[in-house]
Design goal:
This protein is an all-alpha fold. It is built from 6 helices and no strands.
Length: about 140
Amino acid sequence: MSSENGAGAPQKSLIVMKPDARSWRSAKRAIKRFSKKVLGWLLMALGFVLMAAGFLLIIVPGHYFLVVVGLILVLRNAFWARRQFIHLKRRHPNWIMPLRKLLRRNPQVASVFWQQVLKFERIFLRGRGMLVGMRRKFRHKPRTA
């Protein structure tokens, strides 16, 4: 059972060798990657729950932040949501601008709130909204002949 070189054939050892450091590192990397994905899915689910709660409580003042926090969690953990948000930002910049201002590192909450109040006033009180007729009725005195 010798080879052409004169050396004997390799024999299998009965001693179990320790796994090397590379396999441990790759296993640790795989576990870390898996846990990161699971955490991302959990945070994304929490974001959707917060957004749903915010939309359900939209009639109560002050719950706008739930929608924003949920949106932050979803946008940080879902590539498709980020892509959709960018698409909406380009298509409807005036709708998305308040959200973009609130998603910054140092959000200008008072400024965004005041701009939304002014926008609401312009739509419903000055334009052709429902409340215009009531406002005009009290503003003008009736003409007498």
